[in-house]
Amino acid sequence: MKSIIVSILVLCALPCFGKTIEVMVYNVENLFDLKHDEGKNDWTFLPANTKGKKEACQKVKSNYRKTECLETDWAKDNLEVKIENIEKMVVRDEKLPDILALVEIENENVISQLAKSIGYKKFLVSNSPDKRGIDLAVLWKESEELKFISKNELVLVGDYFKERPSRNILEVEFLVGKKEKLTIFVNHWPSLGNPTSTRIVAANTLAKRTKEILSKNPKQNILSVGDFNTIDSNYPHPFKSVLFVDDLFKDLHTTHKEDRSISWNIKNQMPPGTYFYSRAMTWNLLDRIFFTGALLDKKGLELDIASYKIYAPSFATKTYEYRKKGDYLYGSTIKGTPFRYEHNSTSSRRAGYSDHFPLLVNLKY
Questions:
Q1: CB–CB of 248/207 below 8 Å?
Q2: How far is CA 158 from the centre of its chain?
Q3: Going by fewer Cβ within 10 Å, which terminus of the chain is more open, N or C?
Q4: Could you tell me the pTM of the whole model?
Q5: Which sign, positive or negative, has the C-alpha torsion 306, 310, 313, 319?
Q6: 345: domain range?
Q7: Distance between CA atoms of residues 83 and 187, nearest Å
Q8: How far is CA 59 from CA 4, 52, 55, 129, 196, in A?
Q9: In a domain, 259, yes or no
Q10: 289 near 225, Cβ under 8 Å?
Q11: How far is 354 from 89, CA to CA, in rounded Å?
């Protein structure tokens, strides 16, 4: 009898997780509306008959980008197919993620259309100085278990950004399960065409704000998600030299890989990255989910490590064949790469989805 009582007391002392919320992070690859935003270089993703488009495209210095701008006719039918295919990726088993963080979207107008189409009533969009008009969004299912608290934006500053401003970091705070606060940072760091120093600025900006939050509440639950445009060869490395210092953040992908309670069969079913760089025939893990220690302390809100996945359904993948003659890679093929979006297509089957795979994870409470 005594042993039974002790067992019951031990069980009662353990954290009890009866509910979950699902978070999805997705770079949707150029989700633009059909209107020109004054002061923004959004000409490529506009209808061909838009006043001033042809003249603006002719001014593009890169021949590749100029041709893309002139030949892309981003009209109503194209946008509807784009939204339809995003819905196919986002809605699984007739359910929406509780929180959806989107990267590479243009503005509130196009997110309003997306939200209405797929069933979200609540969303927020950043207002970045990026010259192309690229921004970030968070959509969520408001309920008694998930409530919006606040929004903030972190601007990347420095001499480099005076000429080439980048995306802000979008900060959104929620109340989960009536007592657990969750901060989510959505990131789209400067592309790999920019110096590594620009991503160091982004990392420092994120780290500084995270430390400010933790100084007020060391137990705050924090996720930092999105497209970090960072690869292993970057030096100094933005993660290793900034985000991981003093265990400020941990990487969910690495944590999942190192968790011995998760079978290798499950781990190996995921693609080796979220983005496939076709020129070098290599995979990159540009998209990440970082988290602070409170989400793994077995108290309150907790990451379900086993639920993490790079979501790559077969319909959103293709086999890539290297076709550059004279190169030793010529004729090589890689299966399961992202089915990139073709913005001139009006066929949902042929249009594709994105050049990135989304990430998924559950939070328990």
A1: yes
A2: 24
A3: N
A4: 0.94
A5: negative
A6: 16-51+74-364
A7: 22
A8: 79, 11, 7, 21, 28
A9: yes
A10: yes
A11: 10
Q: Are 157 and 74 in contact (CB under 8 A)?
A: no
Contact 7, 345 (CB under 8 A): no
Identify whether 61 is part of a domain: no
User: Cis (ω within 30 of 0) for the bond into 236?
Assistant: yes
The reply to whether 6 falls in a domain is no
Structurally, how many domains does the chain consist of?
1
3-state secondary structure of 41: coil
**Residue 160 φ then ψ, to 5°:** -60, -40
* Residue 39 region by backbone torsions, left for phi larger than 0, else alpha for psi between -120 and 50, else beta: left
Q: In 3D, which of 36, 81, 76 has the Cα closest to residue 54?
A: 36
CATH number, position 150: 3.60.10.10
In this structure, what are the phi and psi dihedrals at residue 331, rounded to the nearest 5 degrees? 90, -10
Residue 193 burial class via C-beta count within 10 angstroms: exposed 0-12, middle 13-18, buried 19 and up: exposed
The rounded distance, in Å, linking the Cα atoms of 348 and 159 is: 43
CA distance 360 to 287: 11
Kindly list the averaged pLDDT for each block of 10 residues, start to end, along the chain of length 365. 47 64 98 97 98 97 96 98 98 96 98 98 98 98 97 98 98 96 98 98 98 97 98 97 98 98 96 96 97 96 98 97 86 95 96 98 98
Tokens of 198: 């620009």
Closest CA to 230 of 203, 268, 257, 258: 203
66 in a structural domain = no
